[in-house]
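Q: Please design a sequence for this.
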């Protein structure tokens, strides 16, 4: 499928799912990253800007440029964007959990601390969903889902994942198509340029980047598509020229996180024949 076809498949899936639930309004977190930026644009296309409620949810490691990018996106899309900090609730959890999760009974760091931040964001978004009757939209992609690079009961939450069937490299390709299509109509590109060029990061720890953990998305996605979509096992992947150690790392990780994918929201199926 072309990026344009992928885009319309995602938006149509979102629109049809919401119609089935009776939802007219949606809520999502705006991190300033590529995933939430593209999903926000899809939501505006599907429901209209007045029915999309975006929230910046900065934590202790959120960068100022990410908040600026999220605000610029909101202006471009005509969204009313609000800011709710998760620092205070996160610190409350850290204070309570530190003695139980940290070896020195004081510092609260590592995976437990990172996932607690994501779960704080989920609590905020679900509270808004419950209070206003808005459907919470998930902003995760398929690369993250396959590699288990997401927080269970955190950023895996939501009723529907419009880009859940897209690998990360296609998220970028579809986002670039969105901007080019806007320019072709004489409109300003909706997704800020800085969002398209900065290294993707969950910003849950100082200096964190996705590719430092997962490896190059270009290389990872090629391997994942051959393995997941085309059914190539480890032997076939190595025979096709992939590095044996990388094949072992990725295929083991895909298998080990099946339980997490089983609890993620529905998403539109994107064919990768």
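A: Design:
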């Amino acid at each position: 499928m072309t990026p344009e076809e992928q885009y319309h498949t995602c938006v149509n899936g979102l629109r049809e799912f919401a119609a089935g639930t009776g939802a007219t309004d949606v809520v999502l977190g705006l991190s300033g990253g590529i995933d939430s930026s593209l999903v926000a644009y899809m939501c505006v296309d599907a429901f209209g800007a007045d029915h999309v409620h975006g929230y910046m949810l900065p934590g202790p490691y959120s960068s100022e440029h990410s908040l600026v990018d999220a605000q610029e996106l909101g202006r471009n899309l005509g969204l009313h964007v609000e800011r709710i900090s998760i620092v205070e609730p996160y610190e409350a959890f850290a204070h309570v959990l530190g003695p139980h999760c940290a070896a020195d009974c004081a510092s609260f760091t590592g995976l437990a601390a990172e996932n607690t931040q994501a779960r704080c964001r989920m609590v905020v978004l679900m509270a808004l969903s419950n209070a206003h009757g808005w459907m919470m939209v998930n902003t995760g992609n398929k690369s993250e889902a396959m590699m288990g690079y997401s927080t269970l009961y955190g950023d895996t939450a939501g009723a529907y994942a419009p880009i859940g069937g897209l690998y990360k490299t296609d998220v970028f390709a579809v986002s670039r198509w969105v901007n080019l299509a806007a320019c072709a109509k004489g409109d300003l590109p909706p997704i800020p340029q800085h969002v398209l060029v900065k290294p993707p990061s969950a910003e849950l720890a100082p200096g964190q980047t996705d590719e430092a953990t997962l490896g190059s998305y270009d290389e990872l996605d090629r391997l994942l598509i051959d393995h997941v979509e085309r059914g190539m096992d480890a032997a076939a992947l190595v025979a096709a020229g992939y590095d044996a150690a990388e094949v072992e790392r990725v295929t083991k990780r895909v298998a080990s996180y099946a339980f997490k994918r089983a609890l993620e929201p529905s998403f539109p199926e994107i064919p990768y024949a």
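Q: Thanks. Anything notable?
A: The longest strand covers residues 52-56. The chain has 13 helices and four strands.
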